[in-house]
Amino acid sequence: MSETLPSEAQPAPPTAAEPGRDDRNISGVPIRLDGVTKRYPGQDVPAVDDVTLEIAAGETVMFVGPSGCGKTTLLKMINRLIEPTGGRIHLGDEDVTDQDPDRLRRRIGYVIQAGGLFPHMTVATNIGLVPKMLKWDDARVAARVDELLDLVGLDPDQYRDRYPRELSGGQQQRVGVARALAADPPVLLMDEPFGAVDPITRQRLQDELIRIQEELGKTIVFVTHDFDEAVKLGDRIVVFDVGARVVQYDTPERILADPAEEYVADFVGAGATLKQLTLTRVGDVDLLQPTTATVGSDAAAAVAAAQAAGDDYVVVLDRRGRPISWPTLAELTRSPTIPDTVDERLPVVGMRSTLNDALDTMLAASQGGVVVTGRRESLAGVMAVETVMAAIQRTRSGAAG
Amino acid sequence: MTASTGVRPDGAPDDTAPEPATQAADERAAASGAGGWRALVWQPVMLAAAVLAFVVWRLAADLSETESRQLGWSALSRSIVEHLQLTAVSAVIVLVIAIPLGVLLTRGAMRRFSPLIIGVANTGQAAPAIGLLVLLAAWVGFGFRTAVIGLVVYAALPVLRNTIVGIQGVDARLVEAGRGMGMSALAVLLRVELPLAVPVLLAGVRTALVLLVGTATLATFINGGGLGVLITTGINLSLDALLISGAVLVALLALAIDWLGRVVEHVARPRGL
């Protein structure tokens, strides 16, 4: 945070990858916008005015700005749902400005709010639409559908034949992401996809997206009005002003530490100390290792182990190592074996969640800590509210010093 | 909260239940589906009872010579067949004209003409059907063909309007999602817009059919045949049995067509809605 580079209003020179991320698998291609303009007839001011922007392959770039600033228009010009009135658009080495839009769009995943799923088609049909258009054979489409459902964390056998109506908002959104990824497009455009779900679900979807992106390395352009979301998900953030003027294009850390203009500082918000919580991931802090017990094992032994370790609760794991509840010792002594009841209100975050998410989850559950899960939802540890407080203290003193 | 770790669970209300599959919604849908079927079963049962009552009355009634000639089984079935022909031919023509026209009026630049066309269709329906038929007869000549033309003009509106409304009622974001994933405009129309418009569109078709059955009784005034013959004869000669038989049969026919329409709507309604 202490770097004092001159603030840049112009796009930062895109580097292929951040240091330390060279081992990442990248399947995306760079996007280059060259003087892109959209002028609607009868309006004096262009909606998007001469935007030049380079997005590196495999990066997640967040478009933020006030409503009406043209960020969505700019996004939709990349897949030409809105035809630019000027400028060129390049995908990789290819100028796609004059390409047949339907064929172009089959190479660009597109995710909108609530998934935009077709209600009269099953989950499998929805996901298989683009591969079918690309004339894949049925067996290949079916295999791809199952693979994608797995990728977004939905059991194919359970969800393949459901209709969107039979899914929760979060599940619909997952299917929406799966559908956009169906034909393995190098570029993914996301237009406020998580705007319509509740905060806890949104946080899980964000974690999932980070995980998927780490696996796939697509080039993602993501429009949001939520700056926290931008900080959490983005490798870089573009802050727009009216007419899609690029005010700052930089990493979240640099935008928070060194806003280019008063405008950005205002947009980022005065609570920038707390915003820093969005920069720290749960996986980056030290987690407590609680006493654990597996369902069906001897309760007395678990109680003894917890007492020896000085804990007054035990995290119960199911047979696949996933935490399902965290009873107190008093609760445990009532039964001879560890019960298999699943605690629906167990606060859980992933390793990729931010400290901000963790704090939100604690507050929502009125609890002083959260259970942290790692790979395949297995237990990674427990984080206490004190850890979050310590992080706030550190940023405070860092800002003061 | 105990001091040692500060992370013990307490009895907080449940806010973090993991996304539950909407089982409740399933059950509701299943229930409403069953309710729908129940209504669909009742209507033909009542109809059958009414038809049976008519047949019993016809066999037992003390009829004059003219009445029994008109209500003889062969004359009666000819009237019914004529009536159904008027209805069916007009309906087919209405569907062939109004649905494509309605679709066209929701496409791009044609959209701005839709108020105009709807206005014209509204006028067609607001004009008294009898006046329309007589004027047409004076212009085109008497007979079955003229009756069909008049009926088509009269019944086109509900189909046209419901086609337009049904397609306009499709969530614009779904159309955009379809285009955004690379479906052509035609593919979006055929695979997204029309299937989703089916419930509204078919309701319009059913309305048109019921209107046609009722209005076809007027065809008799321009020599178009149908069950209207019974009614006019009944009025002219003060033969109440004829008049009432005609009216009852038209009503039963309309109800039967309405039922058929509902069955089709039920079957054709896309799953998942």
Would you give an account of this structure?
The complex is a heterodimer of chains A (401) and B (273). By secondary structure, chain A is of the alpha/beta class. Among the domains of chain A are: 31-107 and 185-270, Rossmann fold; 283-396, CBS-domain, CATH 3.10.580.10. Chain A has helices at 71-78, 101-105, 123-133, 138-151, 156-159, 169-180, 199-216, 227-233, 252-257, 262-268, 272-275, 299-309, 329-332, 355-365, 385-400, and strands at 31-38, 48-55, 60-64, 86-91, 94-95, 108-111, 187-191, 219-223, 236-241, 245-250, 292-294, 315-317, 323-325, 348-350, 369-373, 379-384. Chain A has a 6-stranded mixed sheet, sandwiched between helices. In chain A, strands 2-1-4-5 form a 4-stranded antiparallel sheet, with helices on one face. A 3-stranded mixed sheet of chain A has the order 11-12-13, with helices on one face. The radius of gyration of chain A is 23 Å and the shape is globular. Chain A starts with 30 loop residues before the first strand and ends with a helix. Chain B has 10 helices and no strands. Chain B has a single domain (35-268), classed as MetI-like (MetI-like fold). Chain B has helices at residues 23-60, 65-70, 73-104, 114-126, 129-140, 144-168, 172-180, 185-215, 228-236, 240-268. Chain B is flat. In chain B, helix 3 (73-104) packs across helix 6, helix 3 (73-104) packs antiparallel against helix 8 (185-215) and helix 7 packs antiparallel against helix 8. The chains are: A alpha/beta (401), B mainly alpha (273). At the A-B interface, helix 2, helix 3, helix 6, helix 14 and strand 16 of A face helix 1, helix 7 and helix 8 of B.
